[in-house]
């Protein structure tokens, strides 16, 4: 059975040069032994359409430079910290959406499901119920996970398209949210801890401590894994690269804490890393581990790549897919709680339709494929950062909502174009 | 002088197929009077087949002859309606692919069932990942995969950490075969392994098939390409309209005979002049 993407016999007549180039087009860490080789392999790979997160980072730098040129406040400590908090909701919702996109599906409901998460939390901490904050949050996450499991069950058992099921969810859960809020409109949250999730800051030294722990753990894990791989004789990236990676992460962490610990208050001093930073990093770490190092994650990629192959390998597609939708909704629930916390209230004006579009945009701008099988939780974090930067920057420049929407649309189109061009590049170099 | 013996009747129980001198003991897999119906359609009628270890048995037949149905009965996808399957001399019922795998039967399907976005190691272990403290044990899997590929003399792959999407058709086939033999399989069924391949890659896959047999694994290969069949097969089995019309060592056939049997169910020719074919297809 001939496959359209299959290299035809011409592949057998590779010239030496072409063969070398093809070798270099695979992941650099598996062909390179020295840093120089690695760099050259990486350049070839970027040209071949396997650019990883590079375009996103370049885009982020470009956006920062443009806005900084227009308004010197953009790169101020206060604004950058603010931007992190603004982006947290997009990042969390985007990480939820990655679970659906990885399967080649879509979840349109997570905007209003996140709203349900916020409303449930608010309703439970308010008198007369007066639940403790942690019980309210856990119940809200359980509720959103159950909603996702319901979507997943309808999609897998009844074989309904995820687009339709979650579109119904988009309407239906908005209705449920309005019902829960009643005619009150806006509903303040009378709980300091929940309000602090998005508005509170760590003390400066706590920020340093957490960052030190995170960086040390990352370095230790990376180094032990590399050492073990080197000892057992499997291919591994050159040591210099590992060290460079650790240094990069450490530098980013230090910069983040320095920026956040700078006084950004006008009248009273405000300093410290916002609570949302460790929250987002925690979710990112958990989902990265889940997708990258567990069977569940492996099966997610397998189902996104070739469901039939996954089925024949004995993977229970129904269970994995249902769990993926449950995780998508639960992650959205976390985002919804942060969103409510930032506003210190929940209200009927929550626009879940716009939120879901931003969450898809965050995942795709970050590099997750719309076609399944490719994507990472990190993509949603980077994409969320870009969306937040655009909104924040245009707000600083005093641009209208209309132009903000149009520019975000252009960025989304650009990201999808990059994805499509990268796919074409991969096809040209024999990769799909 | 006819090669052809229509489906064997009144056969003694441990079915002796054409006993070549190269076959010391009983066949690994024996099918005895296998029937399979799909509603009114009789897909398989009293099929007899013996598959010895260490040999490549080519299953040939025209479209609709029942080749795929037959291997799906062995692979546990369908259960036969009648007859008995013997595995290492014992009667067995193979109800699911998992049960087939437990016996040591692995099937390489025509579409290979590989995930393009996963790398070679990930594909070879898909569904059977090894864990270390509940996380994937990538190092151990990588070493095991490398060993299997080396054992099969698959050397054209630059790195086993490259995604399957970057492999040629022959390399993909090699990965699919390596995945099948990784689990101490005793029987590997290959459905049209060379159908989509170019000349050099076909040669590579045929080499690989030979390697499996030389390592003592029984191989059933479905192929339409009689040139390839005669290059690699030790034994031939010809299906015609759901019946096993001829089976025996490859030396008892030539291409013209096989074409005759495939298309008409019988042949009056003999191989050359020196080797009159015997009737030992199934009895």
Question: Could you characterize what this model shows?
Answer:
The complex is a heterodimer of chains A (432) and B (283). With 432 residues, chain A is mostly helical. Helix content of chain A is 72%, strand content 1%. Chain A has 17 helices and 2 strands. Chain A is globular, with a radius of gyration of 23 Å. Chain B is of the alpha/beta class. Chain B folds into 2 domains: 191 residues, P-loop containing nucleotide triphosphate hydrolases (Rossmann fold, 3-Layer(aba) Sandwich), CATH 3.40.50; 77 residues, no CATH class. Chain B is built from 8 helices and 12 strands. A 6-stranded mixed sheet of chain B has the order 6-9-10-3-11-12, sandwiched between helices. In chain B, strands 2-1-4-5 form a 4-stranded antiparallel sheet, covered by helices on one side. Chain B is globular and about 60 Å long. At the A-B interface, helix 12 and helix 13 of A face strand 8, helix 4 and helix 6 of B.
Q: What does the main sheet of chain B amount to?
A: 6 strands, mixed
Structural class assignment of chain B: alpha/beta
Quickly give the CATH architecture of the largest domain in chain B: 3-Layer(aba) Sandwich
Order of helices and strands of chain B: EEEHEEHEHEEHHEHEHEEH
> How much is the average pLDDT of chain A?
85
Find the structural class of chain A using helix and strand composition: mainly alpha
Which overall shape of chain B is indicated by the principal axes computed on the Cα atoms?
globular
Strand numbers in spatial order across the main sheet of chain B: 6-9-10-3-11-12
Strand content of chain A: under 5%
Estimated share of beta-strand residues of chain B: 15-25%
* Share of helical residues of chain B: 25-40%
């Amino acid at each position: 059975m001939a496959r359209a993407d299959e290299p035809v016999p011409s592949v057998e007549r590779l010239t030496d040069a072409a063969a070398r180039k093809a070798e270099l087009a695979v992941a650099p860490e598996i062909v390179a032994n020295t840093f120089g080789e690695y760099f050259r392999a990486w350049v070839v790979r970027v040209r071949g359409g396997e650019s990883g997160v590079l375009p996103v980072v370049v885009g982020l730098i470009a956006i920062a430079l443009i806005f900084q040129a227009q308004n010197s406040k953009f790169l101020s400590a206060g604004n950058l910290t603010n931007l992190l908090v603004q982006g947290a909701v997009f990042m969390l919702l985007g990480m939820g959406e990655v679970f659906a996109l990885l399967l080649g599906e879509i979840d349109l409901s997570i905007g209003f499901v996140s709203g349900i998460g916020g409303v449930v939390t608010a309703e439970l901490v308010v008198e007369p119920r007066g639940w403790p904050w942690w019980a309210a949050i856990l119940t809200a996450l359980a509720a959103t996970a159950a909603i996702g499991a319901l979507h997943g069950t309808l999609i897998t058992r009844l074989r309904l398209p995820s687009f339709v099921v979650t579109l119904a969810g988009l309407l239906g859960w908005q209705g449920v949210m309005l019902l829960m809020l009643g005619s009150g409109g806006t509903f303040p949250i009378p709980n300091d801890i929940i309000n602090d999730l998005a508005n509170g800051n760590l003390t400066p030294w706590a920020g340093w401590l957490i960052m030190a722990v995170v960086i040390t753990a990352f370095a230790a894990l990376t180094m032990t894994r590399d050492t073990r791989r080197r000892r057992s004789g499997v291919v591994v990236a050159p040591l210099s690269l590992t060290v460079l990676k650790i240094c990069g992460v450490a530098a980013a962490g230090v910069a983040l804490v320095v920026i956040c610990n700078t006084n950004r208050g006008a009248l009273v001093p405000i300093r410290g890393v916002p609570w949302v930073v460790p929250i987002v990093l925690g979710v990112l770490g958990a989902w990265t581990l889940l997708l990258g190092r567990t069977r569940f994650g492996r099966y997610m990629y397998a189902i996104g790549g070739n469901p039939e192959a996954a089925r024949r390998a004995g993977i229970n597609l129904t269970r994995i897919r249902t769990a993926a939708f449950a995780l998508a909704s639960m992650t959205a629930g976390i985002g919804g709680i942060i969103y409510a916390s930032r506003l210190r209230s929940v209200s009927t004006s929550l626009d879940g339709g716009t939120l879901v579009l931003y969450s898809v945009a965050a995942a795709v701008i970050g590099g997750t494929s719309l076609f399944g099988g490719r994507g990472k939780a990190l993509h949603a974090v980077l994409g969320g950062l870009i969306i937040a930067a655009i909104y924040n920057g245009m707000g600083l420049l005093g641009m209208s909502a209309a132009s903000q929407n149009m520019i975000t649309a252009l960025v989304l189109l650009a990201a999808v174009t990059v994805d499509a061009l990268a796919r074409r590049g991969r096809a040209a170099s024999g990769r799909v | 002088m006819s090669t052809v013996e229509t489906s064997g009747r009144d056969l003694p129980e441990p079915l002796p197929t054409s006993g070549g001198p190269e076959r010391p003991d009983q066949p690994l897999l024996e099918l005895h009077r296998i029937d399979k119906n799909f509603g009114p359609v009789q897909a398989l009628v009293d099929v007899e087949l013996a598959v010895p270890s260490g040999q490549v048995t080519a299953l040939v037949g025209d479209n609709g002859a029942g080749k795929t149905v037959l291997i799906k009965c062995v692979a546990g996808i369908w259960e036969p309606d009648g007859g008995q399957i013997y595995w290492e001399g014992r009667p067995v019922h193979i109800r699911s692919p998992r049960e087939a795998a437990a016996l040591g039967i692995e099937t390489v399907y025509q579409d290979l069932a590989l995930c393009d976005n996963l790398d070679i190691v990930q594909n070879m272990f898909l569904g059977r990942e090894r864990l270390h403290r509940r996380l994937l044990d990538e190092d151990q899997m990588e070493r095991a995969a490398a060993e299997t590929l080396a054992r099969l003399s698959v050397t054209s792959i630059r790195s086993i950490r490259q995604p399957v999407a970057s492999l040629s058709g022959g390399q993909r086939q090699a990965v699919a075969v390596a995945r099948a033999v990784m689990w101490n399989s005793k029987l590997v069924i290959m459905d049209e392994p060379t159908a989509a391949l170019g000349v050099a890659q076909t040669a590579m896959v045929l080499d690989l098939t030979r390697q499996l047999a030389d390592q003592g694994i029984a191989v059933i290969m479905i192929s339409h390409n009689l040139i390839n069949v005669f290059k690699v097969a030790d034994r031939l089995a010809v299906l015609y309209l759901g019946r096993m019309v001829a089976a025996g060592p490859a030396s008892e056939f030539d291409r013209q005979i096989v074409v005759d049997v495939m298309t008409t169910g019988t042949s009056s020719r003999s191989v050359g002049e020196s080797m009159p074919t015997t009737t030992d297809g199934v009895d």
